[in-house]
């Protein structure tokens, strides 16, 4: 049976594109999991004979949100990959299902998973796509490549030398990876490995990762906190630089204009990770006197660097269902709300290569939709009170 969603307005996804008829309300027709029509409620009703109608007076229909950096196998605790590295596949799978559900409940109809173990994100992705379990669309990188003893080595992705890199990427591709994740630099979750301020891979090996992934038509996400590592990622030709914090040491930040310009030119996106508890981190993390957490974001925007918004959910306290709280950092750093909405819908889909599938309320695309009270262009926190979440035309109940 068809479904018609009726609300005061439809935000298509791109900033400034809104269906707000002079004869309200607006409507969206959903058929077979896809958006079949968008227009006035009267227009879309006329396109169906047996539609079930769901009315949301005062509300807004918009595309489901895209969270571009999560770890579904993380358990939010201080040792977030304890379960993931335990080898207990049933426990890992159950944890991932719970987290996926939490993301969906929070309005995310697409998540990009940037690090699992045992390839279980592929299994979950396929089960969700087949309608066997509820959850968001998942883009999955599988187990990240890292150096021996390097960042997140315990997930099982250690490689050394070209042959091992090629072998690992070939296996990930065969297992169904949507992209390749490489720990180009160190990170905080692995105190025994290189620090977040240093690089892990030889730059030539990093370039080889990109080259090998390209053989399989796969893009590469490079994990890089440090300015030097970001530059090496850009040199290597990765497609996204994850975290992209431009750090050079504790309390030190070095924004490199030339590198940002190269990212803009090449379309290399910054995969920002702002967890919902960013206000607490802003107090805790040392920064230079003239720099606040997130100040790199408007700077990158002004350089034309594509920005993906993620939360690193799965890591300590970074819950999956409070994405709008992360978005507050953007508005507080001067982004306008319409731009933020586009960043987590249409622009994210464009950057992730999903524009033919999701990210906009447009006929032909998957019915990945959200209905929220009021107009989120006036108050982004409305996103945190969804009245309806629909993924691939399936209404989320629960
Ligand atoms: Zn991460």
From TrEMBL:
Keyword Metal-binding: yes
Name listed for the protein in its UniProt record: Imidazolonepropionase-like amidohydrolase
PANTHER family per UniProt: ALPHA-D-RIBOSE 1-METHYLPHOSPHONATE 5-TRIPHOSPHATE DIPHOSPHATASE
The keyword Nucleotide-binding is annotated on this UniProt entry: no
Domain Aminodeoxyfutalosine deaminase/Imidazolonepropionase-like composite: from-to ranges: 26-47
InterPro entries the record matches: Amidohydro-rel (IPR006680), Metal-dep_hydrolase_composite (IPR011059), Metal_Hydrolase (IPR032466), Metallo-dep_Hydrolase (IPR051781), MQNX/HUTI_composite_N (IPR054418)
Taxonomic classification: Bacteria, Bacillati, Actinomycetota, Actinomycetes, Pseudonocardiales
Pfam families the record matches: Amidohydro_1, HUTI_composite_bact
Molecular functions (GO terms): hydrolase activity, acting on carbon-nitrogen (but not peptide) bonds; metal ion binding
Domain Amidohydrolase-related: 60-394
Swiss-Prot/TrEMBL keywords: Hydrolase, Metal-binding, Zinc
């Amino acid at each position: 049976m068809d479904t018609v969603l009726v609300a005061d307005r439809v935000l298509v996804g791109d900033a400034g594109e809104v269906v707000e008829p002079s004869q309200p309300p607006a409507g969206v027709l959903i058929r077979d999991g896809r958006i079949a029509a968008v227009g006035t409620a009267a227009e879309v009703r006329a396109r169906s004979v047996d539609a079930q109608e769901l009315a949301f007076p005062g509300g807004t229909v918009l595309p489901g949100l895209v969270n571009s950096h999560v770890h579904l196998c993380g358990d939010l605790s201080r040792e977030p990959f304890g379960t993931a590295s335990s080898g207990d596949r049933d426990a890992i799978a159950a944890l991932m299902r719970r987290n996926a559900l939490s993301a969906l409940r929070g309005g995310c109809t697409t998540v990009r998973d940037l690090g699992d173990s045992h390839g279980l994100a592929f299994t979950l992705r396929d089960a969700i796509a087949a309608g066997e379990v509820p959850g968001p669309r998942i883009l999955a990188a599988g187990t990240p490549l890292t150096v021996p003893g390097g960042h997140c080595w315990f997930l099982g992705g250690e490689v050394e030398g070209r042959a091992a890199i090629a072998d690992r990427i070939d296996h990930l591709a065969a297992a169904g990876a949507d992209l390749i994740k490489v720990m180009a630099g160190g990170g905080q979750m692995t105190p025994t490995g290189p620090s977040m301020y240093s690089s892990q891979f030889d730059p030539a090996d990093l370039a080889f990762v990109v080259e090998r992934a390209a053989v399989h038509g796969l893009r590469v996400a490079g994990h890089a906190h440090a300015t030097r590592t970001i530059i090496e990622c850009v040199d290597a030709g990765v497609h996204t630089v994850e975290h992209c914090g431009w750090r050079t040491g504790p309390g030190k930040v070095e924004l490199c204009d030339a590198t940002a310009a190269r990212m803009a030119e090449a379309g290399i996106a910054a995969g920002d990770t702002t967890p919902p508890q960013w206000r607490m981190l802003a107090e805790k993390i040392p920064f230079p006197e003239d720099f606040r957490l997130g100040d790199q974001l408007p700077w990158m925007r002004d350089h034309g660097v594509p920005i993906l918004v993620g939360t690193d959910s799965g890591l300590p306290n970074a819950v999956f269902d409070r994405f709008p709280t992360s978005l507050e950092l953007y508005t507080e750093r001067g982004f306008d709300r319409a731009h933020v909405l586009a960043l987590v819908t249409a622009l994210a889909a464009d950057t992730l290569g999903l524009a033919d599938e999701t990210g906009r309320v447009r006929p032909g695309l998957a019915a990945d939709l959200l209905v929220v009270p009021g107009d989120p262009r006036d108050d982004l926190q409305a996103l945190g009170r969804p009245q309806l979440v629909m993924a691939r035309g399936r209404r989320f109940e629960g």
